[in-house]
Amino acid sequence: MTIKRRWSTVAAGLTGIALLLTACGGDDSDDSDSSTESNGAEGSGGDAAEEPAEPEEPITLEFQTLAWQTASMEANEEIVDAWNDEHPNIQVDLLQGDWNNVNDQLLTAFEGGTAPDVFHYESTVLQEFGDRGNVLDLSGYLSDEIRSDIREGAWDTVTYDDAVYGVPFLQESQVVFANATILEDAGIELPTVDDPWTWDEFTEVAAELTTDDRYGAVYPLKSPTNRILNLSRNYGAEFFEDPSGEATAVFGDAEAEVLGRIHDMIYTDESASPDGLGMSSTDALPAFFDGQYAMLPGAIWLRQQLMEQAPDDFEWVTLPALEGDSQQQGAVSQTLSVSADTEYPEYAVQFIEYFLNAENQVKLAAGDWLLPTSQEAAEAPELNDPETGWDVAVATADVLEIAPFQLVKGFEEWKAKVSEPSLQQFFADEISLDELGAKLTGEGNDVLERYRR
Amino acid sequence: MSKARPKATTSVLAAPRGRPRKPQPRRSRRRFLGLDRDGMLLAVPALIPVAVFSLYPLMRGIYLGFTDAQAGRATETSFTAFSNYADLLDDSYFWESFRVGLIWAFSVTILQFVASLGLAMLLNQKIRLRWLARTLSLVPWAMPPVVIGIMWRLIYHPNAGLLNSVLMDLRIIDSNVDWLSSFSLALPAIIVVGVWTGMPQTTVVILAGLQSVSKELQEAASVDGAGAWQRFRAVTWPAIAPVVTAITTLDFIWNFNQFGLVYVLTEGGPGGATRLPMLFAYEEAFRYGNYGYAAALGNVMVLIIAVFVAFYLRQRFKEAQK
Amino acid sequence: MERTTSSAVTGLKYLALCAYLVFLAFPLLWLLSTALKTPQEIAQINPTIIPNDITFANFRAAFDEQPIARSLVNTAFVASVSATLTVLLSIPAAYVMARYRSVVSRAVIVWVLLSQIFPWVLVIIPLFLLLRDAGLYDSRLGLIIVYVVWSMPFALWMLRSYVASIPYELEEAAAMDGATKVRALRSVVAPLLAPGVVAAGLFAFVSAWNEFLFALVLIRDPDLQTISLTLVKFIGAEGVARLGPLAAASLVATIPSLIFFAFMQRRLTGGLLGGAVKS
């Protein structure tokens, strides 16, 4: 009883202070409104394609990269140093962020107006940042040169309505890695870029390679949503109707295809290891090196890990992306964007264009073992070396497209609350394909409902 | 009014052992908020930073729970009173995770306390290399949190993990167990990590409490022929009771609010089996940008946890009165 | 007969202690072992504690690529200043909370609980804006203030219960000799609080040492960054990490805390109270 009384006293006190705070809150929003306006004005007035003159007085731009592997960090430093030498009055300060926390950091920095002028992130978040007025629309600033050098499919991943919220530069595609020795011993003829395996062929080979102490394949399925949705483009799966408008989750035969095939490999054919359920791609490596799995479907960056971690006597090979109805895959892009708070949008864009020119993209792509978006860069000899699977990786450039889910407002919540848990249940054989479909659309649309208000 | 609110919460922790609670300091000339000049002098230096840097942001956070605040500059915030709370009642994902959160918080807190009490008593005895044992028992505390989750993932790894290989060698299991993606084992597996992470602070606090147990009383009881258990019940336990109450309360709150560690381990999976409620508030705020709704979740959690805590503190107080 | 039981009991005690220490300290050994392995060996299917061939390349990579030493110095500075301030500010306030029946004591208790229960994710943005307006963005002072305020609830809550367990008679005696409250606190209560103060100080130090999120949003300058910010630079997206350098750097970050613990644990021994309370 006394306790209750005490809490209510506190509550009364809190309400009083809360009222005071409302007043402060009002000020904040006024400030930010005006800054949005001014930025908007600058954006539309910007002269496209003109190299802005160097400023009279030295200025500093902050650039936050997410590079973290030694080689790509070195590439970043090298490019920034070269820029700083050439542009004494536009100095770039290179900061290093990290993938796992960059979202929290940027969100807070946007609120406080302390975000770096140029930042590295990925296309999936840009729509949200754009809607919130945190990133600059670059459409008025970009030169024709970079516009035409970067693939159209990559621009699609950063373009919302007519706004361009970043410059795409690295993309990952899904391929298959195989233990070359096992495949050779079994007399399997390797597929080529021109004649890739279909899903059926892949499934057959996996079954053929399965023995008492070996699985034909392993699917790392720790957080499966993005991967499954991207791969399902092989069969034209949409998963969402009217993604950029009143997005509705749908589930039909096309959507069921890849899901069903993987599930069957694990539980019907027993040619894919159930170990993969909680694994990320790198988790699967020890047993892959040990010969417990013959094939490991994964993203092209995994080559870096294979190069670094494979035992000296381990032979691996990169197999082309599988073909369903087509080889099309959904892909997200890593991007460079400009904060809406920047004082120097022209210079920031000028820097991005320099940083992402074809020559530099070669270095960045090589450092991260990912596909460059620059068409010129993709032709560089070092990005076409068959020894390290580059020919296969670069060949996927033609089949990458934006998956519909990237356009869906509320996708992140749909994924966290509905899709990830249901997919895990499905792959653990706790629910059937039909039940999965019902969850993705039923519960899924309840979640999406909130975003239509 | 002042008569109506005696000891309850405040004095619970004081838990005077049989002796009436401290007499009031002698009346001094001027009093403000129940403090004399000395009291003010002692309390104010701590209260100023607290008021500015903790109370203000807290109030602001609580207030947000009654608005529709969103991330971004293009949005306008308006006061919505209780509409967030109406939504929340319908939010089955949240309540499911709340259930998981309670299981997690209670198990971890209880196990942590029992294990730490045992360890603290061992460390309080005259043993060889005590300094080393005490230092090593703080290892989980010294280890950077960012590496803890990653390391335990390696330990639980289904086919290259240390745990499975040890258990296989000991013939406790005969095939690999996939700890973190099993629907039944994932929660227990992360509870072990939770206990591991939180033991040092609980141990240190109890150990410090044990220092204040009167040696004379111990000896006197010993001379009277009391066994170890009786000595513990009669002398040690009453002496450390206030400290135990304080630390278990905090442990419970902290555990309930934990999610970063678990997120690294399981990302809330499999199938939501380890999705702790604070992950919800976090995702609402930092992933979906719904500050208002997230704050409302926070407020509801505060209320519910406060009820648990108040109930617990009351129980402890009653026990201490006996 | 009695001797055998007591040595059996002693044996059991050591056995139990060993079990505890294996459970608690084993991961440190694992960290060491990982830090000394090559990438190939880390990805081996049957991991061994003792590396097949020991390499120091991970330590070299960690120190070459990230300012480890600099971050350790920064962190040590921030953590020790915050711990000292926390304790100095908390002792008197905890004393007031335990000895005065006042509105303030009660309000502080409510605040202590509230500050711990309320999700920090919702506090971080207002706090960040406040610090920015106060000109404390990208400064050590800003971090120190946050850490002091962050640790104070724990320090107050614990110290209050320790004060409460010190008999009031001791102070009365001092008061009769004409000592003021402040004097009584300094000369009578504070010394008896030693173990509690150590516990609170350790807590404040460790929380500051390990804290990540506030450092992430408050510190921009790489020269000011704390060790937890440095460590995450070895972790990438999708659960990929450079385990070797990460383990090496983490080990380096763990050692100073452990040495500090080893040093402080003597104070925990205390025994002060046992001797002093002869009522």
From TrEMBL, chain A:
Q: Where is this region: Disordered?
A: 26-55
Q: Does the keyword Signal apply?
A: yes
**Signal: is it a keyword of this entry?**
yes
Keyword field: Signal
Q: Which residues form the signal peptide?
A: 1-23
- Record-given protein name: Sugar ABC transporter substrate-binding protein
Instruction: Please tell me the species this chain comes from.
Output: Phytoactinopolyspora halotolerans
UniProtKB/TrEMBL annotation, chain B:
What does the UniProt entry say about where the protein is found?
Answer: Cell membrane
Describe its membrane topology.
Multi-pass membrane protein
Q: Where is this region: Disordered?
A: 1-27
| Name used for this protein in its record | Sugar ABC transporter permease
Q: Which residues cross the membrane?
A: 39-59, 102-123, 135-155, 185-213, 234-254, 291-313
Q: Where is the composition biased (Basic residues)?
A: 18-27
Any keyword Membrane? yes
Domain ABC transmembrane type-1 residues, every copy = 98-312
Automatic annotation (TrEMBL), chain C:
PROSITE patterns the record matches: ABC_TM1
Q: Which CDD domains match?
A: TM_PBP2
Q: Which GO terms describe its cellular component?
A: plasma membrane
Transmembrane parts of this sequence:
12-32, 76-96, 108-129, 141-159, 192-219, 239-263
- Residue ranges of domain ABC transmembrane type-1 in the record: 72-264
Q: Which domain of life is it from?
A: Bacteria
Q: Does the keyword Zinc-finger apply?
A: no
- Where is the protein found, in the record's own terms? Cell membrane
Keywords annotated in UniProt: Cell membrane, Membrane, Transmembrane, Transmembrane helix, Transport
**Protein topology in the membrane:** Multi-pass membrane protein
Which GO BP terms sit in this record? transmembrane transport
Does this UniProt record's set of keywords contain Endoplasmic reticulum? no
Pfam families per record: BPD_transp_1
Q: Which family does it belong to?
A: Belongs to the binding-protein-dependent transport system permease family.
PANTHER family the UniProt entry points to:
INNER MEMBRANE ABC TRANSPORTER PERMEASE PROTEIN YCJP, MALTOSE TRANSPORT SYSTEM PERMEASE-RELATED
State the protein's name: Carbohydrate ABC transporter permease
Organism per entry: Phytoactinopolyspora halotolerans
**Taxonomic lineage of this organism?**
Bacteria, Bacillati, Actinomycetota, Actinomycetes, Jiangellales
